[in-house]
Each structure stands twice: as C-alpha cells, then as structure tokens.
Amino acid sequence: MQKPNINITVSCLALLLISSIGLASGAKNKLVDKVLDAERIRIDSLITVYWNEPVQSVTDTFCIRSAGSKHDFYSEGDYWWPNPENPDGPYIRKDGWSNPNNFSAHRHAMVKMSRMVGAFTSAYLLTGDEKYAAKAMDHLRAWFITDSTAMSPNMLYAQAINGLYTGRGIGLIDGLHLVEVARSASLLEQSKAVSDVEIVKLKKWFSDFLNWMQTHEYGKSEMSQTNNHGTCWAVQAAAFAQFTGNDSVTAFCANRYKTVFLPDQMNLDGSFPLELKRTKPYGYSLFNIDAMSVLVQILSSEENNYWNYETPDGKGMEQGLKFIYPYIVNKMDWPHQPDVLYWNNWPVRQPSLVLAALAFKNKNYFETWLKLESDPIEDEVQRNLVIRYPVLWISGKRKH
Fold first, then answer.
1. Letter string b/e over residues 338-366, b meaning 16 or more CB atoms within 10 A of that residue's CB
2. Contact at 8 Å (CB) between 262 and 291?
3. Which of 37, 131, 135, 298 could form a disulfide with 238 if both were Cys (CB 3.0 to 4.6 A apart)?
4. Residue 24 CB coordination number (10 Å)
5. 220-237 average pLDDT score
6. Which residues contact 99 (CB under 8 A, 6 or more apart)?
7. What's residue 172's pLDDT?
8. Contact 230/260 with Cβ under 8 angstroms?
9. What percent of the chain stands above pLDDT 70?
C-alpha cells in the first residue's frame, strides 16, 4: 500500500489551533502555525521510514534472567556492572556509566512503538486520513489489546539488578514512553479506525496500570522520590488519568507539582540541585525540566494554567526555563561539570523549549528548538526524551 503525502488542509489546521496550554479561547498563536509547519515536514519523513515496519510487542523477546512471563516488561538497571572482585556475584553500581550488555530489548521495543504510534497519530491529525489512524491502531492492539501479545499492565520486573533484585520501583521510569501512547490513544478515540470495544480495552489497560502505580510498593516508592523519578511518576500518572478520566489522580498530580516539585526540587535560580549532583548534571537537568514541562502541559486548562503558576518565592516554569535556556543555546557556558557520558549528544529538540515557546509566546525558544536535532539516533538520548510529537500536545480531540 503506497503511503500518501501529508498535506495540511485549512480545515485540518482549524482543528489544531485550539491549544490545551491555556491560550484564550479562540485566540490564535502564530507560533502554533510555525510548529505545525515544521512538524508536517518531519512527520512526512518519519512516516516514510515507519510505514512498512513490522508490528511487534513485548512478547517478541524474552530474557532468561526475567522473573516474569513473556508478557511482562523486563529491563536491567543501566548503571550496574559485574564486580571485578566477584565476577559471579551480585552486580555493583557505576553511576552514569551504562552497561551495554544489560537487557534492554523491551525498552527499545517500547520506545520504537511509542515513536511509531506518535508519528502515525500526528499524521492523522494533520491530514484527517483514517489510514494513519489504522496504522497507529495496529501497534496499540499488539501492545494493549490482543491477549496473545499484550503487555501486562505493570512494571514489576523493570530495572532488575543481576544477583540483587528481580525488579525495582525506579523501573517505572521506563514506562515514560507510554505517556505519548496514552495521549495518542485519546486523540484516536473518535477515529473510524477504532471500535468502541477497543477504546474500552485501551482505557482498562491504562487504568489497571495507573492503579498498579498507586497501590504497589514499587509505584508508591517511585511516587515519593525527590528527584526526576518523582516528576516522571507524576507525568505518567497525569497522562494516564487524563486518558481514563480519573480526576482524583489528576488533582493529586497538580497538588504535588505545586507543593512538592517546585518547592523541593527547584532552586530560586530555576536549577535542580539534586540533578546537578549527578555524574550527568546537564542531561539530568534537561530531563527534569522536560518532564515538568510535559506535566504542566497535561495539567493545564483555561481555568488552571500551571505554566504561569509560581510559588510565593518565585519558583515556576518560567524561572526553570530561564535557568537552562542559555546553556541550551551555548552548552560550553555550562558552569558545572560536563556529563561523564553523552555530553556531546545534548541538547536536541527538548520538549520544554517548544512547549514553553507556545505557553509564553517566546520566539527565541521556538527558533532555538527548530535548529536542534529533531530525531536523535543515540539510544540514551532517545530514551530520555519525555515526548517527541508537539502536534499531539497542541491539539484537542478531533471532531467528526
């Protein structure tokens, strides 16, 4: 089947111009047009690459070290290595240094699925062509609906450590790549390519996953983390709650942003002290401001615009962007230690830049974002991109 070219029609553009970032109702932000123009070209290129990619799921690979079944997501902690003094014993930690021999096939598969679903959903929004929605649904069915291939709605066996743990709470951060999947599913809800039964099943899967995040000791421990892990728990919870209509979880995440993340994670200058202590302070600072940006994007509405929220002492998203932005423009001015690995791979098109550009109508943020690499190939960079497709986040649900 030949892939049709993506051309944005006037009617399709009109569907995209109502932003969910707190713009006045009916107001037109010219930067939205510019983002859509840039993404149209990019998405067309990605669709060409993804069109004939096979549909795969978590069940296509299995690690014999996993304590779970073929349906259970499994990964191993990145910074854990064999002990030279005890090669057959438990692994030891080397912060910041990723072990390439640890099992990561499920993570790679989830990232790839997220990238493809996001690209196809973006193409559907830009064109209105149901063919793209159908492509996205092929992957969603395999991962979340079809019994023989679906992933279990938990991460009991993520970030395992050889000889120590069959899974850990911090493994939940691997599920960050489901955030844009849930967003895509919500945008596909009224597509003709999706049945009512399938929507019910998709929402049940994400509802079950969200319940696990709230009730299992791993989920609860990750929720209470004081650094980027706690932020990423809230990003996932808010995204899944939005898709499944769980208002209480949405409210919980909003409260946590205002009373925990800003007061406890951010310095008065907009930096994140706990991220600056790491061996990759630059990459982790980018990662956490990206995660917070996505969180406020999910939470914001015309009634409650969290982009503009500030604590009494002035901590907020605007201050966070003001801190990191000069070092995105010129990384060599970074006043802290360079990252021990992947220093040369950052920055890329950080989602915080484009979302903040739209929220604050800041042309400088947009122009900087546009100049950066849109689709990095380095695995470490790919896995640390919280979202990849702005089209999904500046548009509401399609109406037919």
1. ebeebeebbbbbbbbbbbbbbbbebeebb
2. no
3. 298
4. 9
5. 97
6. 76, 78, 79, 80, 81
7. 97
8. yes
9. 92
- For 200-204, what is the mean pLDDT? 98
All structural domains of the chain: 10-392 (1.50.10.100)
Which tens digit of pLDDT belongs to each residue from 362-397?
999 999 999 999 999 999 999 999 999 999 998 543
Question: 27: which 2 tokens?
Answer: 């107001």
The three-class DSSP label of residue 387 is coil
Could you give the CA distance from residue 87 to residue 319 in angstroms, rounded to a whole number?
Answer: 47
At what angle are helices 363-371 and 351-360 packed, to 10 degrees?
Answer: 160
Cα–Cα distance measured from residue 369 to residue 378, given in angstroms and rounded to the nearest whole number: 18
Radius of gyration from C-alpha coordinates of the chain: 20
CA proximity to 289, closest of 311, 301, 274: 274
The reported pTM is: 0.91
Around 398, how many Cα atoms within 13 Å sit in the side-chain half-sphere? 27
Q: What is the C-alpha separation between 172 and 222, in angstroms, rounded? A: 7
Report residue 96's pLDDT band, with 50, 70 and 90 as the boundaries: confident
Unique residue bearing structure tokens 């500030």: 310
Contact 337, 281 (CB under 8 A): yes
Helices (H) and strands (E) in the chain, counts: 15, 4
Which tokens is 254 given? 């909003």
What's the mean per-residue pLDDT of the chain?
92
E strand or H helix at 329, and its extent? Answer: helix 317-329
Q: Where are the beta strands (DSSP E) in 41-183?
A: 74-76, 80-81, 92-93, 157-160
DSSP string, 196-258: HHHHHHHHHHHHHHHHHHHHSHHHHHHHT-SSHHHHHHHHHHHHHHHHHT-HHHHHHHHHHII
Condensed to tens digits (0 to 9), the pLDDT of residues 126-161 reads 999 999 999 999 999 999 999 999 999 999 999 999
Binning pLDDT at 50, 70 and 90, where does residue 12 land?
very low
Q: What is the 3-state secondary structure (H, E, C) of 43-72?
A: HHHHHHHHCCCCCCCHHHCCCCCCCCCCCC
Contacts of 230 (CB under 8 A, 6+ apart): 222, 223, 224, 260, 261, 265
Read off the amino acid at residue 46: L
